Amino acid sequence: MTIPMTFAPDVATAKDAGTPIVALESTIITHGMPYPQNVETARLVEADVRENGAVPATIAVLNGTLHIGLTDEELDTLGQAQNVAKLSRADIAACIATGGTGATTVAATMIAAHLAGIKVFATGGIGGVHKGAETTFDISADLNELAQTPVTVVAAGAKAILDLDKTYEVLETLGVPVIAYGQDTLPAFWSATSPLPAPLRMDNASDIAAAHNMRVAMGLPGGQLIANPIPSDAQIPAETLAPIIAQALSEADDQGISAKGVTPFLLGRIFELTDGASLTANIALVRNNARLAAQIAGSLAD
Ligand code: PSU
Ligand code: MN
User: Fold this and answer.
1) Which of 92, 105, 210, 248 pairs as cysteine with 269 (C-beta 3.0–4.6 A)?
2) CA dihedral defined by 185, 107, 4, 221, rounded to 10 degrees?
3) Strand partners, 153
4) 10 falls in which pLDDT band (50, 70, 90)?
5) pLDDT tens-digit profile of 156-212?
6) Preceding peptide of 264 cis, ω within 30°
7) What percent of the chain has pLDDT above 90?
8) Is residue 32 lining ligand 1, measured as CB closer than 6 Å?
9) What is the CATH number of the domain that holds 275?
10) How does pLDDT run across 48-86, given as a tens digit for each residue?
11) Which residues are annotated as active site (predicted)?
12) How many domains are there within the chain?
């Protein structure tokens, strides 16, 4: 059985020429940001990748076909679509097999990128262990994916709505390298730093590429998480966000939000409660991650 998979023209050309490619996800577009900022951001992020010498490949499932790179029109349609499925490892194959349309999370984008031969992927923040997971068992499939699919993921750490201590404990258990870029502490999504020491630190893209290649050479399955801090002039202090995150979490609990709905609900409420400041910071951090990912893809192509 073959996988219905199509490459955007510029991605196909880049693949043939050995030009560096950076995968981008689509759940951040459909479930992570409101329209029209979601589409505007996706375009800015693609331009950031290009300015840093790589070709962007935004990934999504459209009418049963896995798209590696979207046209401007496809991006715009996806960005305005209502009730798009949020696809992870559990449901991406079913969506393709039944001719459905869905946006790919970090986990599903890693699977698709690997199938397409793309080694580097940029996003905002990965999913992880939710606060209260000891009773809800809500742990993102992104963590298991990092443990088994060999793609280097550049993110501003795990999203600060999560239990960051538990998230990094699970990543350690799973054997996922967590590499802070240019600092000794882990970033916390909207904030550049956190009290958590970084398990590993690297200061340039070529070291990150070398570590990726060494894992492959050693036959170690799984990827790497590059925790890239938001630029300090764009960050929101953790103290400012703490009461807002707490309020959003308590509302989610009161309203019985669960499963795939949790992260989009929390991001949406935090956007409202910060009068849009969380979105401005989210845009800055994802663009910063795209730039670093392009540099890593460049080093891997050398
Ligand atoms: N980064 C962002 N915003 C997002 C996401 C990442 O800046 O909305 C998405 C990614 O697709 C990630 C998902 O995989 O959030 C996590 O969802 P969950 O917690 O349900 O696993
Ligand atoms: Mn979840």
Assistant:
1) 248
2) 80
3) 121, 225
4) very high
5) 999 999 999 999 999 999 999 999 999 999 999 999 999 999 999 999 999 999 999
6) no
7) 99
8) yes
9) 3.40.1790.10
10) 999 999 999 999 999 999 999 999 999 999 999 999 999
11) 25 (proton donor), 159 (nucleophile)
12) 1
- Residue 159 appears among annotated catalytic residues: yes
Closest-CA residue, ligand 1 atom 16, reads: 127
Q: How large is the greatest C-alpha to C-alpha distance in the chain, in angstroms?
A: 53
Tokens of 47: 């331009």
Catalytic pick among 25, 46, 119, 131? 25
Contact between 74 and 13 under an 8 Å Cβ cutoff? The reply is no
Known catalytic membership, residue 260? no
Q: What is the domain extent for residue 235?
A: 5-301
8 Å CB contact between 142 and 107: yes
